[in-house]
Amino acid sequence: MAGPAVEVKNVSILFNLNKEKVDNIKEYFVKLVTRKLMFTEFWALKDISFTVEKGERLGILGFNGAGKSTLLKTVAGVLKPTKGTVKVQGIIAPLLELGAGFDSNYSGKENIFLYGATMGYSRKYIESKYDEIVEFSELKDFIDVPIKNYSSGMRARLGFAIATAVEPEVLILDEVLSVGDAKFRNKSEAKVKSMIAKGVTVLFVSHNTDQVRRLCDKAIILDKGTIIANGEVNEVCDIYDKLVGNGKK
Fold first, then answer.
1. Euclidean distance between CA atoms 122 and 100, whole angstroms
2. What pLDDT is stored for residue 160 in this prediction?
3. Sign of the dihedral through C-alpha 210, 177, 227, 58
4. Residue 17 neighbours by CB under 8 Å, 6+ apart
């Protein structure tokens, strides 16, 4: 299909933050009905616009609280914009909170099929990828163990292995290349590079400008929900490195 892989146009996201502590659901609804529940409006994203052409890789930089994860969740369809529009062409593989969809009482094997189903893939397709997933995750000896007995690193490795076993057209990565030990991180980056070589479009959030330079050809910097820099990856990473060096918070 013609047109960019991702088009974000004038997107803003508003969150209503509760001003006071509410101890239970009953108290919440009583205050809500009587209009005694006070909120503070917080714009997590403010009038964001950019496009990513098919096969391009966009790095998204910014300090904590800048709106990076909110932006990725909006592109992935997890959040609906308060204002503006998001258009994505192709199958999306969002690697946001790895393992967030796991059932802790199910084994690793059972969760492979559960996680695959939540991504929209059939059992037959996941069966064809099962051995590849287990091998990549390096969890063969633990695959029949309940997820509740996994460490956070093991859960993330299994989530990454499942999400990257598919063949997406748009890959969304939220700091997931920092999971696991150095060996697994290198293997994960190599896996993403192999997907890039096949023409996958990538949106990649990271604080590591060296990694962004290696994987991306464009970049933006978010600050308090707005884009303050947008352009060629090395130019934008240089700006971000200066911000970090200046101790900007």
1. 20
2. 84
3. positive
4. 39, 40, 41, 42
Q: Distances in Å between the alpha carbon of 177 and those of 16, 187, 190, 197?
A: 31, 9, 10, 17
Q: What is the pLDDT of residues 158-187, one digit of tens each?
A: 888 887 887 788 988 887 666 667 788 888
Residue 89: CA atoms inside 13 Å, Cβ hemisphere, count?
12
Positive or negative, the CA dihedral 116, 204, 201, 87 is: positive
* Structural domain boundaries, residue 232: 1-7+50-90+169-249
| Residues pairing with 57 in the sheet | 202
Quick check: helix, strand or coil at residue 246? Answer: coil
- Tell me which of 137, 168, 199 is where a domain ends: 168
Which of 112, 147, 168 corresponds to the end of one domain? 168
206: CATH: 3.40.50.300
Q: What is the mean pLDDT of residues 40-57?
A: 93
Q: For residues 9 and 117, which has the higher predicted lDDT (pLDDT)?
A: 9
pTM (predicted TM-score): 0.78
Are residue 206 and residue 192 in the same domain, yes or no?
Answer: yes
**Sequence-separated (6 or more) residues with CB below 8 Å from residue 247:** none
- Residue that has been written with the tokens 């001003």 in this structure: 19
Residue 79 counted as domain residue: yes
The pLDDT of residue 249: 46
Q: Total structural domains in the chain?
A: 2
The answer on pLDDT for 112 being more than 70 is yes
